[in-house]
Design goal:
Blueprint lengths: L8 E10 L2 E11 L4 E5 L6 H8 L7 E6 L2 E2 L4 H4 L3 E4 L11 H11 L4 H15 L14 H12 L6 E5 L7 H16 L3 E6 L2 H4 L4 E6 L2 E6 L1 H8 L4 E7 L1 H9 L4 E7 L2 E6 L6 H10 L3 E7 L4 H11 L1
Parallel strand pairs: 3-8, 3-9, 6-7, 7-8
Antiparallel strand pairs: 1-2, 1-4, 4-5, 9-10, 11-13, 11-14, 12-13
The structure holds adenosine-5'-diphosphate (ADP) and magnesium ion.
Length: 311
Amino acid sequence: MATPSLPLLDVQGLTRRFGDFTAVDHVTFTVQPGEVLGYLGPNGSGKTTTIRMLCGLIKPTEGTASILGIDVTRNPEAVKPHIGYMSQKFALYDDLTVLENLQFYAGVYDVPRSEEAGRIGEVLRMAGLENRTNAFTRELSGGWRQRLALGCALIHKPPLLFLDEPTSGVDPVARREFWDLIYELASGGTTIFITTHYMDEAEHCTRVAFMYRSKLLALDTPAGLKSTYLKGAAWDLATTPLLETVELLSGTEGIAQASLHGDRAHVIVKPGEWTPESLTEKLTGSGITVQSVETVESTLEDVFTLLAHSS
Ligand SMILES: Nc1ncnc2c1ncn2[C@@H]1O[C@H](COP(=O)(O)OP(=O)(O)O)[C@@H](O)[C@H]1O
Ligand SMILES: [Mg+2]
C-alpha cells in the first residue's frame, strides 16, 4: 500500500483579527506536493491575509501553519528558503534591468554565488526573457513584468510558490501564457498556491478553495465541487419576456441567482426547492411564456454563487 505523502502545507484553524474585525476565520486545509491550489474569493475575503500568514510576514491571532513540517509562526526564517512569494504589488526595480532585478532577488533569497548564474539562466529560459536581459524593467509591458516578477519569486527554486492575483490586470493572451508557465512549473514538481478572482482560471486548478467573508466555504476538485453542490441545479430557461423572468426569479425564494446568459435566463436553484414543472407553473402564473427549461453544465461560478447565498 502506498503511504500517503506528508502535506507540503498544513493549515489548522488559522485566524487573523485586526482589532474587532476577523479577516481570516479558522481556516483549515492541507496541500499535497505538486498541487495547483486555486484560492478564490471576492475582494476583501481574506486571501492576501492568509498568504501573508503562510509566508511568515504577519502572525496569526490563532491557529497554526506548517510548511514541510516547519512551523511558520515559530520559525519564519527556516521557512523562507522553501517558499517563493509573488505578492499583489510585487516590487520590481524599474531603474534596474531584467538581469539586475534577478541578481538582486538572488541576493535577497541567499542563492549561493556559485549557483547564481545558472539559476538566472534557468529562470530567464523558463520566463522566455532571454532576449530581454538588458532591457530596463520600466520598458516592459504588463505581461513581461509579470513574468519577470515570477522569475524573481522562483530564483531560489522553492518547492512551494505563492502567487497573489498574478494575472489581474493582464491581457487575456498574456493570462493564457502565464497559465502555461504555471502548468510547466507544476509538472516540474513545484507546488503552487494561487489566488485569483477569474473563475475560468479556477477550472484549471487541481483543487479550488472558496473564501467568502473570511471563511473557507469549500475546498475540492472542480468536478467534486460541482457534483457536491450543484447536481442538476443550474438551469437555462427560454422564456418571453426574458428580462422580466430574470427580475421575477431574482427575488424568488429557493433561487440562489438568476441572470441573463445570451438569449436564456440562467438560474441556480437551491437543492430540492423547485422542479422544472413547478417553476414553469410559477412563471406561467405571472404571465410569462416558458418555451423550455434545460439543465445545463454548471460552472465554478455557479457553485460559488450558491455557496455564497447559503452561507
Ligand atoms: N493590516 C490591516 N489592518 C486592518 N485591516 C486589514 C489589514 N489587512 C487586511 N485588512 C482587512 O482584512 C480584510 C481582508 O483583506 P485581504 O486579505 O487583503 O482580502 P483579499 O486579498 O481577499 O482581497 C479586508 O477587509 C481588509 O480591509
Ligand atoms: Mg488580496
